[in-house]
Amino acid sequence: MSDRVFFFDTTLRDGEQSPGATMNFQEKLRLAHQLEMLGVDIIEAGFPASSPGDFASVEAIARQAGESIQICGLARCVQNDIDRCWEAVKEAKNPRIHVFVSTSPLHMEYKLRKSPDQVVEMAINGVKRAAGYTSNVEFSCEDFSRSDRDFICRIVGEAIKAGATTINLPDTVGYAQPSEFAELVGYCIKNTPGSEKVVYSVHCHDDLGLAVANTLAAMKVGVRQAEVTLSGIGERAGNASLEEVVMALTVRKDLYGLTHGIESEQLYPSCRLLSMIIGQPIPLNKSIVGANAFAHESGIHQDGMLKNRETYEIMTPQSVGRKETHLIIGKHSGRNAVLQKFESLGYRLNDEQLNEIFAAVKDLADRKKTLHDEDLMALVQQELYRVPDRYRLRHVSIQSSDAGGVPPVAAVLMDVAGIEKSGAGFGAGPVDALFNVISDLVGRAPDLEQYAINAITGGTDALGEVTVRIREKNLTAIGRGNHPDIFVASARAYVDALNNLVKREEEGTRLHCQLETERN
Q: Which letter, b or e, does each residue of 10-34 get, where b requires 16 or more Cβ atoms within 10 Å of its Cβ?
């Protein structure tokens, strides 16, 4: 048995099913590129048959992927799903089709309304259909942990004979306990004909907080593929967290004796990028990548750290991409210092990008005494990886008072499709006044579904990060803005959301035209 663990990342498929975690086309491409830099072995890019948008993003990710990574699409054991999946992934250098069918008595009776024999037939036909397109076929037993173990051995054996090369045994509803799960997985590996021909995988959900524990327990009995997501996002309570599984195998290699190909220094940049894309901050106490993961406040802990770091840290911040440095970035820093600092954070800037980010650093340093790593990473996201602007904010001004009968007043100067416009107006509060004026200037007033403020760093001069989610008709868009002045950050976030809304409209129009062309 090989000691190499393969990491199958499903952030773009199962992770996107997490409430509020929807990503647009460009965001999916950006995250897929980062996952490739992280060193994951397989990206499950989506469920192509589920929507034209999902098909388009899977197809684009397959086209941009390099030689070292497999691009996978999900499909039910249904002919049309499998055909559509292949159309989406076929241009990848290493395509994979992932087919699944429910195997628990509960699912077979109430969800599929089929007998066990019919479900076995579905599995055989689905795997054969996929194997007709590629030799890289994964088969999953949905709700494995509540299935009959001997039925699993039967259906998995048939899937292997039909051409499956990876077998996934999911704890779909997060029901299993680690020792129980390991025993069940081990039984199936041992008692299924042809097990030696395939790689076994697990996909564990976190409903009872045991997804990582169950994944690691399964590896002790022969599983060599872990299906995970960044920060553990996913359906309901989420999935096994990629960074937690990776660092458990790394820190406790003495216990597991397993290797992997993940570049652990890219763990924090990857989770941070995901956080900024979906507009959900990383919890402060999140293992591995949370802000407090390497923070020490207790005097006893601080004393121990000063004497020997290993007294209270089992890994270094640098090992997960939270790089320490003696470079102090401020208004007196030169270009080379700024470039070196961003390189230490994992970013590679060309001359044009460096010029843009250098100006942004100088501007922020004039308003803020200390620039933290999180401030600089937020600048990169805001200045370099934003959607091209239809609307561009130039200046805002707010007048507000606690005196009764004097409503807040906002004044805004901005560019709308290249035309300079200005306006002023009132609102129930300063932010409401800002949003009202911006809506009037751009000529659209979407519903505001979410408004959230997060202080990226500590102190009274903290860089504020505002996230808004807006809806217009059947489209939603997320916007983000960063600034020490929370009203400026709010205006930037609202304008960013409007730009993203325009981008989603344009994507929808292109997809519609593409579908019309295919029909004709």
A: bbbbbbbbbeebbbbbbbbbbbbeb
